[in-house]
Design brief:
The chain is built from six helices and no strands. The longest helix has 33 residues. The chain is mainly α and 162 residues long. Helix 1 runs antiparallel to helix 2. The chain is elongated and about 70 Å long. The chain has one domain.
Length: 162
Amino acid sequence: MHKLQSGIDTVSTVISAIMCGLMMTILTVNIILRYLPGFGGFSWYMESSQYLNVWSMLIAGIAISVRTQHLKVNLAEDLAKGIGKKIVKILVAVFNVLFYIGMAYGAYLLATKAKQSISTMPQFKMAQVYWMIPVTAVLSAISVVIGLIVDLKDMDKEGAKA
């Protein structure tokens, strides 16, 4: 399970980094083209940069979720001992999964309603842009479960060593 966790973390981090690099390349090339005579830059640079930025952060969220490194308050987990600590971890994971399911459903509704809306980038419809949200939300929910399983197994191993 650690290999799966590590694989998901690596793949999502690499994809996110590539998207950030592509965004920076587009912005840099556009700046250079604006100063060259006869070029006005890309008309789609701003929109593509926004999409790549948001998409890369959503994909990075998968890595954060699988490593259980998301923003959380550890007070209850730190105060709990033994089975209580496991219960707190499970409750946190359940609420995270519910959040991601709600996010996926809301984004699904948004994506299905945006079928006719056309992006300023001619090759995209807004529905295609929005579909990244429910996809990454579902993958993040799955990642939360994987992270929980790894954490609980590690807790059992630590308990057996003590």
